[in-house]
C-alpha cells in the first residue's frame, strides 16, 4: 500500500514538475478518512517504530521496591507515587508501607507502558542463547524455565554446583549418588538413578528425593512438603529447562502413593499433570498441584510407597512419530 501510493505520487510527479508536485503533497492536509497517502518521506516516518537504545545505570526503577522482583504486569502506586507490584499490594493489604496511604487502586501506566515496550537480551546470551530481543516482562520466566543455556543449581544442601542440565545430572550421579546407594537410611539416599524403573524409600522426614533419568540426562525432584495439616504434600519438579516444543509436547507425571505397611488400607492415592520445570529449587514446595498424603499412609517407621511415572504428552505437531518419546521417559519408582 505504501509502495503503491509512492508509485502514484511518482507517476504524478512524472507528469508534472517534480518539485511542484511534492510541495503540493506536503501542503495538503491529510484526508480525514482515506488511507493516508502523504508524501513518501512521511509514510516511512510514520510506519517505522521509534526506538531508542538505552543503558540503565540502575535497575531499581524496574523492580518492585517491596519484593525486589522485576515489574512484569500491573504496577500500582499510592498517591504519593510509591510503587508496588500487584501481589505486594495484596500482601500489604492495600496500605503503602512507605507512607501509610492506600495502594492498589491507582495504576502506574507510564511505567507499565515503558516496561511493556522494552526488549532485552537473555542473560545467557553469552552462553549461546539466541533470544536477544525478549520482552522484559517475559525474560524472568524464560531464564527460569525455558532457556536451554541457563545453568541449573544442585539442590543438595551445602553444594554450590551449577551447570547445564546434563552436567547437573552427571554431577549428582558422580558426587552425590555413590553415598546414596549404599546407605538406605540417614542423609544418604539423596539421589536415585532410573532408566525404566527404580526403587526409592521416601521417608517422611526428607524434604525431597532426587531422581536421575540417565537416558535423557534429566534431574527430577520428588518434593515432600510439610505445611499441610495432618499429612504431607508430594509433588514433582524437573530441574532444567522445559523440553523444547519441537521435541514433542509436555512432560507429564503420575504419582501413586500406597501405604507402606497397609496402614491406610488398600486404597492408593494418585495425582498427575504436567511436570513444572525450573533451573533451581528455591526450597519451597509447590502449593498448587500437589498430592496430599494423610498421616495414616506413613508407616510406623515413617516411610511411604511412591510410584512415579513420567511421560510426554504428544504434542499436536508431528505427534505421529513424536509419540515414541513417551517410552523414553517411562519410569517408575517404588518403595518397599
Ligand atoms: Zn512486589
Ligand atoms: Zn506511599
Ligand atoms: Zn535464554
Ligand atoms: Zn551437588
From TrEMBL:
CDD domains: RING-HC_SIAHs. Keywords: Metal-binding, Transferase, Ubl conjugation pathway, Zinc, Zinc-finger. PROSITE patterns: ZF_SIAH. It is an enzyme of class 2 (transferase). Its EC number is 2.3.2.27. Pathway: Protein modification; protein ubiquitination. Residues 117-177 form the SIAH-type domain. It comes from the Eukaryota. Residues 1-47 are annotated as: Disordered. The keyword Magnesium does not apply. SUPFAM superfamilies: TRAF domain-like (SSF49599). It catalyses: S-ubiquitinyl-[E2 ubiquitin-conjugating enzyme]-L-cysteine + [acceptor protein]-L-lysine = [E2 ubiquitin-conjugating enzyme]-L-cysteine + N(6)-ubiquitinyl-[acceptor protein]-L-lysine. This is RING-type E3 ubiquitin transferase. It comes from Urochloa decumbens.
Amino acid at each position: 500500500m505504501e509502495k503503491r501510493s509512492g508509485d502514484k505520487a511518482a507517476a504524478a510527479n512524472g507528469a508534472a514538475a517534480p518539485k511542484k508536485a511534492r510541495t503540493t503533497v506536503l501542503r495538503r492536509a491529510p484526508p480525514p478518512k482515506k488511507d493516508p497517502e502523504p508524501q513518501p518521506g512521511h509514510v516511512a516516518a510514520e510506519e517505522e517504530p521509534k526506538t531508542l537504545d538505552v543503558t540503565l545505570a540502575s535497575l531499581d526503577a524496574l523492580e518492585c521496591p517491596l519484593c525486589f522482583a522485576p515489574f512484569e504486569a500491573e504496577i500500582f502506586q499510592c498517591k504519593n507515587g510509591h510503587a508496588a507490584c500487584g501481589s505486594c499490594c495484596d500482601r500489604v493489604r492495600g496500605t503503602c508501607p512507605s507512607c501509610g496511604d492506600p495502594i492498589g487502586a491507582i495504576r502506574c501506566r507510564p511505567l507499565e507502558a515503558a516496561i511493556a515496550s522494552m526488549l532485552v537480551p537473555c542473560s545467557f546470551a553469552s552462553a549461546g542463547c539466541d533470544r536477544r530481543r525478549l520482552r522484559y516482562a517475559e525474560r524472568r520466566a524464560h531464564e527460569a524455565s525455558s532457556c536451554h543455556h541457563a545453568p541449573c543449581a544442585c539442590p543438595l544442601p551445602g553444594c554450590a554446583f551449577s551447570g547445564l542440565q546434563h552436567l547437573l545430572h552427571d554431577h549428582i550421579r558422580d558426587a552425590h549418588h555413590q553415598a546414596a546407594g549404599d546407605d538406605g537410611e540417614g542423609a544418604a539416599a539423596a539421589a536415585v538413578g532410573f532408566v525404566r524403573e527404580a526403587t526409592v524409600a521416601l521417608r517422611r522426614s526428607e524434604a525431597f528425593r532426587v531422581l536421575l533419568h540417565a537416558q535423557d540426562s534429566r534431574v527430577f525432584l520428588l518434593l515432600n512438603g510439610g505445611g499441610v495439616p495432618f499429612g504431607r504434600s508430594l509433588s514433582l519438579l524437573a530441574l532444567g529447562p522445559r523440553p523444547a516444543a519441537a521435541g514433542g509436547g509436555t512432560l507429564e507425571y503420575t504419582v501413586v502413593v500406597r501405604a507402606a505397611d497397609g496402614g491406610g488400607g488398600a486404597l492408593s492415592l494418585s495425582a498427575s499433570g504436567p511436570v513444572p520445570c525450573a533451573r533451581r529449587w528455591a526450597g519451597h514446595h509447590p502449593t498448587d498441584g500437589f498430592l496430599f498424603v494423610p498421616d495414616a499412609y506413613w508407616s510406623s517407621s515413617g516411610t511411604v510407597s511412591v510410584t512415579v511415572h513420567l511421560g510426554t504428552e504428544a504434542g499436536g505437531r508431528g505427534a505421529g512419530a513424536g509419540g515414541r518419546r513417551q517410552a523414553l521417559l517411562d519410569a517408575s519408582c517404588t518403595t518397599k
